[in-house]
Amino acid sequence: MEIDLPSKLLSGSSDGTIKIWDINTTACHRVLQAGREGPVDILQVLCIKRRVIAVGWERDICVFRDKQLMSSDFNITPDEWSGRREHSEDIMCAAYHAPGHLATASANGEIVLWNPNSENKIMKLDSRSSQAMKTQSTVEMMLILDTRLENPNAAALVTCGQNGWVRFWNVHNGHCEGEFIAHPNVDSITMAVEPEKHLLVTADTSGEIKTWLIEGFCDGTVLEEDAEPLLKPVLYRSWTGHGECITEVEICVRGNRVVIVSASSDCSLKLWAADGMCVGTFGQEEHWKLESIEISPIPTVQSVLAEMQKEESIISEVSEEEGFDDDFGFDFEDDTSTADFDPNYSYETWNSTILGKSYANQRSQKRPRRQPHNYARLPQVGADQRPISGTQMGGPSQVLKVSDLDSIGMPQRPDFMMNPHKYFSDGFSDIQSKGTKLPPLSSADVKTSFRVLIKQNELVLAS
User: Fold this and answer.
1) How far apart are CA 262 and CA 277, in angstroms?
2) Distance between CA atoms of residues 304 and 426, nearest Å
3) Nearest-5° angle of CA 122, CA 124, CA 125?
4) How confident is the model at residue 25 (pLDDT cuts 50, 70, 90)?
5) How far apart are the C-alpha atoms of 20 and 453, rounded to whole Å?
6) How many CB atoms within 10 Å of residue 266?
7) pTM for the structure as a whole
8) Which of 56, 112, 177, 289 could hold 43 in an S-S bridge, CB 3.0 to 4.6 Å?
């Protein structure tokens, strides 16, 4: 979903259509037939200069030009992209920054930089410069750091995808300047960035959110002789924000306040501070005001590193006084981060929000259906699993018993087969015993019979 103008909203659907909505009147302004009247997976829609592009289901870029959008036609078919086909797999995502930066990435990890004006390829990023490209290829999201575009030594393109990898690319020479694993042991991640505040936010499918300080990481700054380059950004905070997969994160800046919005498949939308403080859940009964909430500003990398060194020195002093040895495997950081973590935590959106309670109230006023009793929070039982001991099986059938079928003997033969003389006459039995044959018919008799039948039919038709 992409907002083009202050009064227009674009939305893509799996039926292959992109609709342009008027926010003021909520009316559908145009329907763009991206799938050419067929179902396709529209993964991203972007509004660039005098065009609307969509990607996600083929190797080419689907484009709608301003002449088509300004026409009187309600249903609009896509135009041809002027550049050649550069991707060998389906395009998964795209990123654009005005006036002349457009990037697309495919399922096999190919990243192409385009000139949006001529629609021709500028370059393909060198995937071989990435040491871990063999472990992860699919790029699922890209972001452009506008504050770094003018610096030829800075990495201005950020990509993320499977296995929790985040990579920083130089759009001038096409090299991967830095890469790190933001979330280990996950399928995929999503991210958001605020270049002016030097803040990167990542979230994964397990509900974990991390904030990173990207100042000094692949930004082209000249280091001192004794200084060592950062191998990855400084991790500011890490916390579990949702009980299920996080589908989207966004960074919002209001004055000097930076807040994070996270959306999850648990049907909740939450607002966070960069240090992990939960401001609230959208739709909750108690309203909040950002002006009255104390939100910590984004710290500098030097202050966070100094704080981390201070904590490490305190831990080392305590371990020496208490006689702890590092070989015992004590990890104070892990203990503090997982102390309050509940693996069975699940946010009840419908019981904690105004929308959920109003919906439940409307449902309670409806006529109840005649259906089996619904049990709350039943255990998940697979086809090859048994329920946990002491729990109750769900569904209309509580117990199903299967036993062996009773044995069936040989069926008794009917009486007319056992005693045919009781049911058939003596003449029939004599014919069977003697083998009497019917007299044969000659050809003349057959012809005579047919002539008689034909005459009878003609008389019937004449009458």
Assistant:
1) 13
2) 116
3) 120
4) confident
5) 79
6) 18
7) 0.68
8) 56
